[in-house]
Amino acid sequence: MMLRHVLAALLITTPTAAEMVDGNRIIVLDGDTVALSCTAPSPRCSERIRFLDIDAPETFHPDCDEGLKAGLAAKARVVALIRGKVVWIERSGRRDVYGRTLAALRVGGPSGVNVGMQLEREGLALQWKPGADAKEERRLYWCGPQ
Predict the structure, then answer these.
(1) Strand partners, 104
(2) Could you give the CA distance from residue 135 to residue 31 in angstroms, rounded to a whole number?
(3) Which CATH number do you get for residue 49?
(4) pTM metric for this prediction
């Protein structure tokens, strides 16, 4: 009996590799990060998901006013893409340095529109590359030289 409860708890708290989610359940934090709320709310139970391989400008600690405007536009576009739709979340099995799940979000199922790539096509996000030089390149793209 105890083993059954432990296994049930693991299934609830361990993210699956891929799942379909109602887009209205997804909390959009910014242009490249969302959160899934828990079915039974408890402290720190939500899963934060960072879009795989893209970077949108920051909205919480922007580098410049132009970056903030671009970040808010990216966030609004994510909302427009997912609200009222079925969203397929395809987890990579990796986490970023902040512990966020790295995943691709697709609207309309596993072969649907990749939200991150759509933002990139529309110029609202850039491809993510590691390193200080790449970070500075992205900052220059959003803010220009300072």
Answers:
(1) 90
(2) 16
(3) 2.40.50.90
(4) 0.82
